[in-house]
Amino acid sequence: KKGNYEHFMQKEIHEQPESLTTTMRGRLICGGSSKAKSVLLGGLKDHLKTIRRSRRIVFIGCGTSYNAALAARPFLEELSGVPVTMEIASDLLDRQGPIYREDTTVFVSQSGETADTLLALQYALENGALCVGITNTVGSAIARNTHCGVHINAGCEIGVASTKAYTSQIVVMTMLALAVGADTISSQARRVAVIDGLFDLPNKVREVLKLNEELKDLAKLLVQEESLLMFGRGYNYATALEGALKVKEVALMHSEGILAGEMKHGPLALVDETLPIIVIATHDSCFSKQQSVIQQLHARKGRLIVMCTKGDAPLVCPSGSCRVIEVPHVEDCLQPVVNIIPLQLLAYHLTVLRGYNVDQPRNLAKSVTTQ
Ligand code: UD1
Ligand code: M6R
After folding, report:
1. Taking every annotated instance into account, which residue ranges of this chain make up the domain SIS (predicted)?
2. Model pLDDT for residues 121-138, shown as the tens digit of each residue
């Protein structure tokens, strides 16, 4: 079942152009004129009015599924105008945090069986909120117990490390934002750009997968390290968290995703000539802020690896002294889908080089069905 691949994680990383195509199949409508471009999510169409009128949208999940929701949050806020908040399922339960009848709660889970997410769903149902599921598993507990939802249709994911489900979850939540957001004249150009971007996304993912050898070389360079930091912000704060989760989960290397805006509030003290730091600085509205973060890390002699938009290397690394990973440019809200792929590849190659089990990392289970 692994075909030409040695590991399921490797196979699942490389099949993302196809899994994303399946996720979008039949859901993107492209008529003749630009006005006719839209999104159809069969499972949500009868509930869109309620979602639009809700007081809050609350994303709830664990691990990678939480990170996917975090990546989609800014675009959903932009298009819906509804406040979007984030909850890690276990933390919501620990706090018994407030959930109201006027809330739309969105449960994100690849397996649809994660105990914490399922218990948070029961809690939200008891509190009278509208409960929406986003899951990869038809017939799973979350799919059955939510009022409505969307299957991500990424295909079966076997590697314990979630890869193709993450990118498909982001795409589904981006489509959710397009479906919920009002089709106003002011948002028309933006909507069309994102829908066109979705159509072209599998091609861009195919392009970024060509960096495989480059990431293998980077893994060789980092194989002996004890720690790896990842700095991101805006749309790519989630990329930093998810990249670091992959590295710690499979390569068993300490890694931390850090919000770049928090750098001076503590993490900067860690920076020296030895600790490797990946900075995500692809082109979007946060770019100039990330340029200044790079300058400040550079001034402290940080060992930088910068992920930037193709052609931007001279802008992010004027002295030529840092290593650069150049990725294709896509619409800002879709950039996390492209940007995570080099980090998935890096985590994969680090794991192989360090001799650890890729598909079954120690102490972990694919689906965490106990609290
Ligand atoms: C559905 C069919 C698909 C068919 C398509 C044709 C299923 C599972 N899907 O896809 O095979 O090709 O119509 O139009 O039969 N749901 C939840 N919670 C969740 C996920 C989904 O309640 O977490 C519900 C949805 O609200 C919906 C149903 O499950 O009622 C199916 O969802 P989904 O597969 O996303 O719907 P379609 O894409 O329309
Ligand atoms: O099945 P779920 O999406 O609910 O699982 C949530 C987490 O357990 C899961 O994403 C975990 O963090 C992954 N192993 C990360 O790769």
Report:
1. 47-186, 218-361
2. 999 999 999 999 999 999
**What pLDDT does residue 183 have?**
77
Sign of torsion over alpha carbons 308, 79, 167, 68? positive
- 291, amino acid identity: Q
Q: How far apart are CA 348 and CA 100, in angstroms?
A: 41
Which of 166, 357, 154, 141 lies closest to 252, judged by CA? Answer: 357
The atom number, within ligand 2, closest to the CA of 117 reads 4
Q: How many residues does the chain have?
A: 371
Dihedral pair phi/psi, residue 204, rounded to 5°: -65, -35
For the CA of 110, the nearest atom of ligand 2: 3
Pocket test for ligand 2, best of 7, 65, 163 (most atoms within 8 A of CB): 65
- Residue pair 180/172 in contact (Cβ under 8 Å)? The answer is no
Strand order, beta sheet including 303-309: 254-259, 227-232, 276-281, 303-309, 323-327
Going by alpha carbons, the residue nearest to atom 2 of ligand 1 is: 42
- Could you report the average pLDDT of every consecutive run of 10 residues in the chain (371 residues)? 93 98 95 75 96 97 98 97 97 98 98 98 98 98 98 96 98 97 86 96 98 98 98 98 98 98 95 97 97 95 97 89 95 98 98 94 88 84
pTM (2 decimals)?
0.98
Evaluate whether ipTM surpasses 0.95. yes
Maximum distance among all Cα pairs of the chain, rounded to whole angstroms: 58
Q: Which of 303, 124, 312, 318 is nearest to 222 (CA)?
A: 303
Q: Is the CB of 43 under 6 A from ligand 1?
A: yes
Whole-number pLDDT of residue 165: 98
Which residues sit with their C-beta closer than 6 Å to ligand 2? 62-65, 109-111, 114, 117, 160-162, 245, 249, 367-368
Ligand 2: centre distance to CA 243 (Å): 14
Q: Are strands 28-29 and 38-39 parallel, antiparallel or unpaired?
A: antiparallel
Give the position of tokens 């994969």.
Answer: 348
Is-contact 120 145, C-beta < 8 A?
Answer: no
Give tens-digit pLDDT for 304-342. 999 999 999 999 987 878 999 999 999 999 999 999 999
Compute the distance from residue 44 Cα to the ligand 1 centre, in Å. Answer: 9
